[in-house]
From TrEMBL:
This is Large ribosomal subunit protein uL6. Belongs to the universal ribosomal protein uL6 family. Residues 11-82, 90-164 form the Large ribosomal subunit protein uL6 alpha-beta domain. Keywords: Ribonucleoprotein, Ribosomal protein, RNA-binding, rRNA-binding. This protein binds to the 23S rRNA, and is important in its secondary structure. It is located near the subunit interface in the base of the L7/L12 stalk, and near the tRNA binding site of the peptidyltransferase center.
Amino acid sequence: MSRIGRLPIEIPAGVTVSVDGRAVAVKGPKGELTLQVAEPIEVAVEEGQVLVSRPDDERESRSLHGLTRTLINNNIIGVTEGYSKGLEVVGTGYRVQQKGSSVEFALGFSHPVLIDPPVGITLTVEGTNKLTVSGIDKQAVGEAAANIRKIRKPEPYKGKGVRYAGEIVRRKAGKSGK
């Protein structure tokens, strides 16, 4: 049995979880998320808990058991607390500034890069070099942060670029002068 999959998920106050066939809907103070559960996995709501079970010990059922439980738990955390990911812009002349709901980056290109947030994601700028991506869907927050980082990844010689908050960039020595 999956150690993670068999753990019950406590439903906090103010959150409602409803199972309709293969769809699990989670509604909370910050919004609503739905999840389509894969075929062999079964989800039930009993006594303020969500229970995820599998019918057999087939390889596919075992692999989806813990995954499904974690995805439902992530949705519950998302509608209560939300998720956020921090980004830092490092480099001389590199900066970020808010333009309405969009964000404008100056990253050493010949033009500024304007990023519009996806649906359900908010971008907030603190200072000239810090950006926070936040929302209720953990997967969407991570993907939006990764797409912003992809504009100018941190390079290994000077460490310039967009990096996650707290990310350690391995530095290379560069050419040795004679």
